[in-house]
Structure formats: structure tokens, C-alpha cells
Amino acid sequence: MHRYLKLASGLFSWTLRIVCAGHLGAQYLCEFTETRGESMLPTLQARHDFVYANRTHRLGRGLDMGDIVVAVKPSDPDHNVCKRISGMPGDVILVDPSSSSTVSNSVSTCERNDGFNKFVVVPEGHVWVTGDNLSHSLDSRSYMWLPMGLIKGKVSAAASLDQGLFDKDGKFWFFNLRWLKRNFEDEP
What is annotated as the active site (predicted)? Predict the structure, then answer.
């Protein structure tokens, strides 16, 4: 009986250690989460794409223009958003130039929005984020700048789990993992 009790306590101890290590890893190192929605097309699929978010960049640490981040949605703290940083603290941002386009809006909407004349300065401790698919994205154009305290991590890679283990040419490719690059970099 004593032997089984010792074995059970050892098993419980190692299980608890593994659970704690997993929690710390997910909290402070890397998060693996599914994306949903069309806001980041064509960079990310609307469904079945999973992103790897580097949690060492949480709270806005070490981020730069063009980085993709996972953050708590400012208008709904129970949901996350995945967006690209398109403005850093101190940047002057044209809020929504598309709101003055008669291609996608009526003339009265254009006159009311007058997006070509609405500029904002991103305050310290905040970033401006937008989806890559601007016509299907709720982002800073809706809820203004994003506090860096809501940033959970920087997205470095994505995996399409609906594609299987092989790429389109039939070569083994671990869940179609692809590295995501920063946009908005100046050409040399």
C-alpha cells in the first residue's frame, strides 16, 4: 500500500510540474491560437489558420511598424484580435481615407465622414492597428488606437491545419507552417 501511495504522489507531483511549466510557457513564451475572420486576408486564412504569438513581446515590448500582433479587443475583453501595426507612438495617422471614396460610399456618407481631413496623433503607450483586408476589418479606424497593455504577443508564424502534412507539391511540410514577414519596411 505504501508503495502505491508513493507512486501516486510522485505521479501527481510530476503532473503538477508539467502543468505549471505548460502554463508558464503559454503565459510568457509562446501562444498558439486559431484566427477567425476575413480581416487579415490574404496574409492569414479566414478559417483554420493557427498563429504562433511570441509572448516576450506582450505589452508592446520590442514591436515595430508592420508587425502582426494578437491583442485583447478593446471593445470586448473576452475576445482577441489579430492585426498589423500601422502606426507607432507619435505617428500622425490619416484615420480612414476610404470613408471619402465614392467607390465604396454614397456622396452623403463621404461628406459626413470627410476622412481625408481627419488626422490623429498616436499617443505614447499606444499603437494604430489595421487588418490587411481593410474592407472587412474592425480595427483602429473603429476603436481608435490600441493601448500597448492589451497586446498579448507578436505573431511570427502561421500554420494551416486544414492542409495536412504535405504542401501542394506533395512534399512533407509540418502543417504548412509559414513564417510571416513584417510589412511597411523601407526599400534599401
Answer: 39, 83
Whether 9 is catalytic is: no
- Establish whether 6 is a catalytic residue: no
Residue 8 burial by CB count (10 A; 0-12/13-18/19+): exposed, middle or buried? exposed
CA–CA gap between residue 60 and residue 68 (Å, rounded): 11
Residue 154 confidence (pLDDT): 93
Q: Which of 6, 39, 100, 156 does the annotation list as catalytic?
A: 39
Q: Using a cut of 0.85, tell me whether the model's pTM lies above it.
A: no
Quick: pLDDT tens for 52-63.
899 989 888 999
Q: How far is Cα 150 from Cα 36, in angstroms, rounded to an integer?
A: 19
**93 pLDDT above the threshold of 70:** yes
Q: Which domains does the chain have, with CATH numbers?
A: 32-89+124-179 (2.10.109.10)
